[in-house]
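If you are new to this repository, start here. Below is one unmodified record pulled from the training split, so you can see the exact layout before writing a loader.
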Amino acid sequence: MRRCIIILICILLLSASKKKAMADEITNTGSLYRQFSYGLSIDKDFIYLNNEKFIVKGISYNPYYPLERNGDDMRKAKFEDDLEKIKEANINSILLYWRRPLRIYYACRELGLKIIQGIPIHHKTGDFQDERLKKMIKSRIRTIVDYVNKNNLSDAILAYFIGGEIDPYSIRTSDFKNKGLENFKGRYFSSERELNSIENFLMEMADYLRDYELTTYSNTHMISHINWPSSDEVLNIDFMDIAFFDIYSYWPEDVSEFQPGGSFTGTSYQGYLEELKEKYTGCPLIVSEFGYPTAPEDDLASVDEKTQGREIVNRWIDILTSKNPIAGGSIFEWNDEWWKQGKGAQFVEFEKDPGAHEKDDYEEWFGIISIDGTSYTNYKVRPKPAYDSVKMMYHSDFDPVKYFKEIRTNKGGDGTTLVTNKVKTADIKRDKY
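And here is the target side for that same chain:
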């Protein structure tokens, strides 16, 4: 009996020592090289998997079909078929905004696809220091970490992100309510600069996620938040392991009108990326969303299907040829979604909108897979030309410099026209988070 007790104590000490070693490896957020579980690591510019550079070649996967809306069960999509087609398109990662059916996770692991896993915030209080909000998000963190680990799926996860696209008005409102707030100082995340209320909140949630995952399941993953240009001036996520940004070329004007243009392509998009990376010199920067909608009657952001594919490739070239390294990107999105309510769809009765594919609602037409028809009982699912564009540009043999030079000398051919439509901030309505 005494021998068993001694052995048990040794096991517990070894386990504690292992957890401490893992914690020490990732506590110093200023280090040049940080390691996580399952062969994942980062330096100041890139992600590595088993010591090989891992450029994120991702896509958002939100497979809601007609009559299904965000939060409903996903009953119509054929997950395994979708994910096989995703793999065939040379995509290596999918982005999920919340907990999804287990079949998606198992299929990803079998196919070798990595998952960027979201934990939504859905804030309503206007105060990011509200203890009720913190309690709710911590509960969601436990829910998703338990879901992943209890189903032995942790090795499929690339990173977690806590919320995204927080509007600047909410941030300023919260700051007004929390003047004189002291910096949060966690075990794993901290900062020497003065933090505002949302930065303190995100740091506290990231620290909680890291601690819960490590102490409960003895593993760690990269943690971030998805920022966007609208809130860049009031939210700096440089304390995170990696920096996710949703960046579209046509909106806002901070991006579409950015000058000077990029160092290689000369586009405003690349110029914006290069300046943004100068702000995030200490961690990998990833474009967590880029893409184009194809709504046939929208004059704000949409393009035709052929142009969608061409411009997605152009943005990927912007990312790959930036003079300041970008660690990859993720296209928004896999399939068209009917449930969203932008433009004219805002006036459609909420219960009826998922059954209609409004031709002027650009939010419903971002997919590289078309889901379109005359009604929710009469529709077809087909790849848009962008599917082949993505398959080409994500291929390991794709040479962005050679491709760029070829399309520039191909007068009138594919790739010579850049999207120039501009969208005002007030015209955009976001529905994902």
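Two things worth knowing about this chain: The first strand starts at residue 34 and ends at 35. Confidence is low (pLDDT under 50) at residues 4-31, 411-433.
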